[in-house]
Each structure stands twice: as C-alpha cells, then as structure tokens.
Amino acid sequence: MNFPNTSSSCQSNPTHTYRATLSLPRTNSLIFLLPTTKRRTLLCTLRITACHESKSPQIKPNNPSLNVSLQHQSKSSLTESDICPELHDDIGNGNVGDTNNLGGNDNGNGGDSGDGDGKGKGDDDDGKAENGDDEFGPLLSFEEVMQETEAHGVTLPADMLEAAKNGGIQKILLLRYIEMQASAWPLGEAVKSIPLLRNRMLADPSFLFKVGTEIIIDSCCATVAEVQKRGKDFWSEFELYTADLLVGVVVNVALVGMLAPYARFGRASASQQPGVLARLQHAYDALPSSVFEAERPGCRFTVQQRIGTYFYKGVLYAAVGFGCGLVGQGIANLIMTAKRSVKKSDEDVPVPPLFKSAALWGAFLAVSSNTRYQIINGLERLVEASPVARKVPPVAMAFTVGVRFANNIYGGMQFVDWARLTGCSVPAKMHPLR
C-alpha cells in the first residue's frame, strides 16, 4: 500500500514502501502494532478519516508538528479493509486479530496472533508468568493492593505487604485472604497469625476439608479397631486409646499439610540473603510441595526437583514418624508398665521396644505413607482440575473422602505386615498407622 503525502486517495501497491502523514488524535484512535522483531513492536495512534462510499480513505493531518512517517515493507502491507470504518470498529472492540501481532501489548500479554479480547495468544506463557494471570487472577500492583485492603479495612501481614511492594499480589489470593481473615474465631485469628495455615488455605481452599477428612476417617477406623480388639476392656484401657488417638491427629495433620500446595510470598528477598541457611531455604522454596504439584507463574519445576521433593518429603515424614512414635509408644509403655506394677496377668503382652517401634513408624511414613500420599495428591489435582469438578465441586470432595478412606484401610493392613516382618508386636491399643 502506498500513501503519498499529497494524495487524497489510497492506492494498493504491495511491492513498494509507503509513506503517510499522520497525526495524533484526541478520539477515535486506531492502534497498529508495527513489528520490528518478533517481540519488539512500535505502538502508533492514528487518526483516519475514511470515505465509506467511495472506499477511498483520506488521511488528514490536524497538527503538522505531530506528523509521523511510517515505512512498511511488503510483508506487512495494508489493504483498504484495514482502514475501513467497519474494520476500525471491529479492531477497536478487540474483535479482529491478524498475523502481524495486532491486538497484543508490550506488558507480557502479546503474542503471534490476536484473539477476541485483543490479547495475543502466541508464546503467552512468559506473559502470564510476568503478569501472574493464571488461576489466581491478574497481578495487582502495590497501589491496587492497598486500595483493596483499605476498602475492606484490612491490614496485611508483614510478608504479604513485602510481596505487594516487591512484585504485587495476585487478585484471587488477596480476596481469599480478606475473606478468610474475617472468619469467625478461631479460624480468622489463626489465618492472621499462622502463615503455614494461611498460605495453604490461600492456595487450596479445600485444605481444611482434606485435613478434617483425614482425621475423621483415621479416628473412626482406630475407634472401630480398638473396640473390636479390646471388647469389654475398652473403657478400662481408655487412656491407651486416647493417647493413640491424639498422636494420630498430629500425624494426620503432618501427612496432609506437608504435601499441600501453598502460596509463596517473599521468596525473592529470602534468596538474596547471604549465608548457608538462606541458600538452603532458597533451595527448599524452589521445590514443589509435592511431586505432582501444578506449575504456576513464578513456580516452574524440573523433573529433578520433583524427584528431589519425593526424597526430601520422605526425610520429613521419617522425622515426624520417629518423633510421634517415641511420644505415642512412650506414653503407651508408661501406662502399661504402671498398670502391671499394680496388677499382673498371664495374658499381658510384652511391652513393645520403644526405639525399635519409633524407627518402624519413621520408616513406614518415609516409604509407604510418602508414596501413597504423593499419589493421592496427584489424583486429587486431576479430579479438581476436571470440567466436572469445576462445575460441581462436591464431586472433588466425594473423591477426596473415597480415596482417603481406601488409603487408610490399605495403610493399616500394610503397617501390620511391616510390624510382623520387623518383629515389632502391634498391641491392641496401637492402631495400624495411616
């Protein structure tokens, strides 16, 4: 297309460069992206008066001081339809895209082609990563975050405030926090004061449901097993049952919480701090919370990191199992010893070895529980991301209940086998561990 400086008509000539005298208008802007390279564009605002009847668009400069000369090669040549009024309306509404990056922008959402909302979609992964435009919504600037919090009368915790200053906070995470901190006591206060709970609830609103499901299922299974095994002696040995139940609650919270996804705030500033501990903290922050955690903008995980997560969580599970084994088995052994000092019976089973039993708990959690719960997290992620679960959330909740119930039954039977193989007796009070 060739636009002479003095001519009032538009001539189509794709083999030559064009030169046009243009001005910057106050209204009726038409935005063209003139690509120099694939990722570098020049944004021009044009005022075009088109002759609809004759299809002879004219370019009328209103301010010679703002004249702009454009040179465009044949590969990016324009046609009359590009500047027709009808097309002008379509482009202005974001309804038209072409192969020359029309409709993109230079803040990370641009791409190779325009779509219905005026945003390019080609190579949009980097743009989403920069803007945080994923399931958690767009990234809000510090000013926008403060406006939102002031409107609701909310004060952000220190780490969230720092994250807002450094790079912003995604909209959905901010709105979830505003809603959760206003919950009734004790949940509202816990969200404000316990970052471990807050961050997991922000990333997964069903986190408490999963923890509660795990505790209820395990407690019910333990109670049924205790009543069946103890029979008429259940109430006389109720303290043993209670000790096992309390330890089981701690284990269940750890099993679910350590693999749950969480919102990550202040990671950049932590990684810049010197020292070995800071580097270790940065390396830990770079790992996914579970092997099958979904990737999000700013959270990309390699295969090596996912494999490393399995072994790292195994170590944490082993520590939790060994510690809870010492406490739980220690309490049980103390009660059993105290009772036998008062009344002995030929039917008494030997007191289980403390450290050997604790080591069994640690090894079982590190290998069996770690593997099973990693798989459960992956399955729950697939179900929650399915179209059916998005439309009907109770589907995902029902799946969580079913898969965790089956896992608890299987884990209990497997623990009995492990105890027999290692020579550790499993007294009636010891519900097979998770």
TrEMBL record:
Its main location: plastid. Residues 123-136 have a biased composition (Acidic residues). Keywords: Chloroplast, Membrane, Plastid, Transit peptide, Transmembrane, Transmembrane helix. The chain crosses the membrane at residues 238-260, 315-335. Residues 92-104 have a biased composition (Low complexity). Residues 56-80 have a biased composition (Polar residues). It is a multi-pass membrane protein. Residues 53-138 are annotated as: Disordered. One of its GO terms (cellular component) is chloroplast inner membrane. One of its GO terms (biological process) is plant organ development. It is found in: Plastid, Chloroplast membrane. Belongs to the RETICULATA family. This is Protein RETICULATA. It comes from Carex littledalei. The lineage of its organism: Eukaryota, Viridiplantae, Streptophyta, Embryophyta, Tracheophyta.
